Amino acid sequence: MYHFRRLLKCGIVAFGALALAEPARAATTPASKCQAAVPPAAKSFLKSSLTALAACQSKVDQGTLPANTNCLTDSATASKRVAAAATLATKIGAKCTDAAVTALAPGGDCAGVHTAADWIGCINGSHSAAAATLIGVADAGRSKLSSAALACQAQADTQIRSYALSRIGALQSCRLKPPKNLPLGADCAAAPKIAVHLAAVRSKAASKIAKSCTGAALTAAQLGPPCGSPATGDDLAQCLLNAADAATTDAVTAEFQDSGFCGGNPAAVETRLDTLLGQMTLTEKLTQMAGSGILGVVWHTPGVDRLAVPGLNMIDGARGVGIQSGNATCFPVAMARGATWDPTLEQQVGDVIGTEARAKGASVILAPVLNNLHHPRWGRAQETYGEDTFLLGQMGVGFIRGAQAHVIANPKHFAAYSIEDDRFTVDISVDERSLREVYLPHFQKAVQQGHAGSVMSAYNSVNGQHCGENVHLLHDVLKGDWGFQGFVESDWYLGARSTVPSATAGLDIEMPSPDYYGQPLTDAVTNAQVPESDIDDAVRRIVRAQLCFQLDTNPPVPDPTQIETTAHTSLTRQVADEAIVLLKNDSSALPLDRTRVHSIAVVGPLAAMANLGDHGSSLVNPSFAVAPLDGIQAGAGSVAVTYVPSAQLSMSDQATVAAADAAVVVAGLTFNDEGEGQVTIGDRANLALPGDQDQLIAAVAAANPRTIVVLEGSGALLMPWVDQAAAILMAWYPGQEGGNAIADVLFGDVNPSGKLPATFPRAETDLPAFDNQSAEVTYGYYHGYRYLDHNGVQPLFPFGFGLSYTTFEYANLAVVPATISANGWVRVTADVTNTGVVAGDEVAQLYIGYEHSSVDRAVKDLKGFERVHLEPGQTATVAFDVPAANLAYWDTTTSSWTVEPITYDVEVGSSSQDLPLSGSFAVTP
Ligand code: BGC
Q1: Which pLDDT belongs to residue 141?
Q2: DSSP string computed for 857-890
Q3: Max Cα separation, the chain?
Q4: How many CB atoms lie within 10 A of CB 530?
């Protein structure tokens, strides 16, 4: 649950750039005094919160407090926590002025705060959330349990608390006084002494948990997500301690000056950069600002050999490492991964793609794509995670964190890129409020929460300026307001359009080769059209990323043994399993029970094709790929499978289909229908299934009442036959194990759990217009579910929707506290119960509404989600932490974020249209 609190702190101006570039401060500056005061105050606050919550939980466990007590609302516990919060405020308030906080530019959950009150509020919120999460995961007990189960919970609770506090203490001391042997760019957790110490503490804690949690005690213990149903005590221990690692890393990050992607000692990196920049000639600096074409299988930017600056090696990676490098693991496309609503799984995907990129010799992976799906006809719809900024941000951060364990991630295309056919020429006209609230927050999260080391600018223009020379986007927002410390490179070939405007706006690298940079940039510097300080800033960013990612001391080395390993290809199947969305299931047409269904007719040309997606820059070449027919045949067991390859049913096909116990039609889109503009087919012509597929489905459904339609493609399709199909699955472009995953779901070996990351409308006219011809296109405040909500239009299948083979019920909504200040946080909890007879995953969703707002706002916005696994009859409590700052709107009169002091509506449920729980909370003026 911890990842739901890594929420965007809506940006107020951050001065990270200034702060990081300054030499290390003497211990007496106001900023350093403030910094020194925060970690001890924060740690003792966290300790008090943990102790108060644990005391309450143990009273519940012992029966002193009623079994259904919610410790978050229990009044005695709450008053202890309020007292601790007051101490926190006094300690930090005594040492931190607003100016000091602004100069420090805190990181993590607190990125963007610029007053002492905001930092105190943020630390209170983030650390309270960490405490609630740690207790919630280790000890979710609500009912009477055996003494062995209670002992297991109590042990888990004690160990996770003491491990978390030791880890925080060790990380804090390292950040306050980095050890000399901490390599440049390394995290404090990797400092040799600390790593050894923490490994020992962890292993002690793990063995105590494993010892107390065995057999019946383990099965009966009530543990919270994501550790709800561990197979062994050791699995439980690892899961709990991983949760503690994540929570403590986040807590400490929020207590310190933002070091971005530069590890535990950013000041040492800046000192080395000062030296390096002083040693470089102007020519050496300028050479680093443009690609030098392909080197082996990667695009290269030159370094400076004599100074051991290696340069960068880039490769594509939207669904796996790009085809130019040979074979690689091919995942389901990003839209499919968006349908998993599982940022933790996406982190594993990023980890694999990052590992393989590095094993190909790359140091930068040109992913993730973070453009909102403004309209489902966009040719590259498949490459992004969906239509909603919150979902995009969470998934993007997951990918970046995974990938950046190995290489530099490169969120793209900045910004408002979502039309292919005129991508090089279109100007997107977008008002400032829509830009800030709808098109940019996920990029902000990628930079501030994910700590992406680089960003790629888009081909299109925004408000009249090409994105590669857009002063507002690059200079004011990305590097100014968000304090981005990494480098910006252009998209390939037509991404850079000028010399002076690009260099002065903040485009650091022209890719893939010098056209406007190189000699023209040298001339512009010589003629004083571009100040040398701009060149220094660009080179500092380019080299900073190399040092912070340790490319100078630990460069990527090609290693074919890391490519398409069994672990990697198995993960593609897990992702596809989680991504498939069950859209319709009349009369339990699915799953196909192998003991009752004796024959299946598999129909349609697409059934025999491993349909992996676009053939543009996202193309990946796996060494094997499973078509749906292959997967179904392999998974059918004793069920007879007949293949009908026809695109139109002949009389004899009809007879075959009618004779089978069930028919499975595979239909959808391929790379011939949608893809990257200019290099492949581009935008979709409309939302209909191409060719005769509608007729084919209708004919199959007419012949066999148990017709199951398996759809592939990037997203929304019109379904004139929707009432005739018994069941419908959306399988997307499901990756190299896609056929097996489809079979997993058809036969019920996997219970479907994907949820739509984008609206499927009834008609294209229900969406904003899609214009891929005009020179100027206006993007408004509404698209996707927010557009349909605004217009009161019902979709065919709503955003967030997906069925399961079981049923879930929602109950016990709690919103705590009922009133918060503009820098406070609210925690929303709800119980989800599996009321069916098979195990399954549910993605609980939180939406916030603004009925009382004085400005035009969406009916509701997604503000939290959590995937939980539930055995039949099992209940889990899901928790969402929402900082008030996340509810702000962009006030165009003051050019700043404003949190309105109003009542906010809270809704929780299983899709944007099925929200059975509702409540509210108020923000005080
Ligand atoms: C695409 C980028 C890609 C680059 C390099 C461009 O055409 O828009 O997404 O990373 O090519 O292949």
Answers
A1: 65
A2: --S-EEEEEEEEEE-TT-EEEEEEEEEGGGG-EE
A3: 88
A4: 22
CB atoms near residue 780 (< 10 Å): 14
Residue among 366, 467, 618, 679 whose CB has most ligand 1 atoms within 8 A, to mutate: 366
Q: Quote the ligand 1 centre to 491 CA distance (angstroms).
A: 6
Closest CA to 256 of 197, 209, 187, 355: 187
**With a cut of 50, which residues of the chain have pLDDT below it?**
1-26
Return the pLDDT at 2: 30
From atom 12 of ligand 1, which residue's Cα is the shortest distance away? 617
- Choose among 595, 605, 698, 707: nearest CA to 660: 707
Determine the residue of 413, 423, 459, 491 to mutate for testing ligand 1's pocket, defined as the one with the most ligand atoms within 8 A of the Cβ atom.
491
Measured in Å, residue 405 CA sits from the centre of ligand 1 at 23
Annotated active-site residue in 491, 744, 789, 881: 491
**Is any atom of ligand 1 closer than 6 Å to the C-beta of 299?**
no
Instruction: Please tell me the distance between residue 237's alpha carbon and the centre of ligand 1 in angstroms.
Output: 42
pLDDT, residue 195, reads: 94
In order of 296, 411, 623, 829, the CA distances from 323 in angstroms are 13, 19, 11, 45
* Residue 570 CA, ligand 1 centroid: distance in Å: 27
Q: What does the block give as tokens for 296?
A: 């082996």
Distance 300 CA to ligand 1 centre (A): 14
Dist CA 662 CA 726 (whole Å) = 10
Structure tokens at 833: 């119960």
Q: What is the number of the ligand 1 atom nearest to the C-alpha of 423?
A: 8
Cα(249)–Cα(246) distance, integer angstroms: 5
Which of the 8 DSSP states describes residue 920? E
pLDDT above 70 as % of the chain: 97
Residues shown for the chain: 925
414 lines ligand 1 (CB under 6 A): no
801 Cβ closer than 6 Å to some ligand 1 atom: no
User: Angle between the 738-746 and 628-635 helix axes, to the nearest 10 degrees?
Assistant: 50
Q: Any idea what DSSP says for residue 823?
A: T
What are the backbone dihedrals phi and psi of residue 800, each rounded to the nearest 5 degrees, phi first? 85, 0
User: For residue 303, how far is its CA from the centre of ligand 1 (angstroms)?
Assistant: 22
Strand 808-816 versus strand 364-366 pairing type: unpaired
Residue nearest ligand 1's atom 6 by CA: 492
CA nearest ligand 1 atom 7, residue = 492
Q: What per-residue confidence (pLDDT) applies to 419?
A: 98
Nearest CA to ligand 1 atom 8: 491
Give the span between the Cα atoms of 875 and 468, in whole angstroms: 50
Torsion 132-135-138-141 (CA) sign: negative
- Chain centre to alpha carbon of residue 509: 26
CA distance 321 to 366: 9
Catalytic status, residue 723? no
What residues have CB less than 8 Å from 116, skipping those under 6 apart?
34, 92, 93, 96, 97, 98, 100, 101
pLDDT of residue 865: 98
CA distance 224 to 830: 12
**Paired tokens of 96:** 């931190």
Q: Which residues contact 669 (CB under 8 A, 6 or more apart)?
A: 684, 689, 690, 712, 713, 714, 717
Which atom of ligand 1 approaches the CA of 412 most closely? 9
User: Rounded distance, CA 397 to CA 73, Å?
Assistant: 31
List Cα–Cα distances, 477 to 110, 146, 356, 484, in angstroms.
18, 56, 32, 9
Query: What is the reported pLDDT for 139?
Result: 77
Query: For the chain, first and last CA: distance in Å?
Result: 30
pTM exceeding the 0.85 threshold for the entire prediction: yes
For the CA of 413, the closest atom of ligand 1 is 9
Ligand 1 atom nearest the C-alpha of 369 is 9
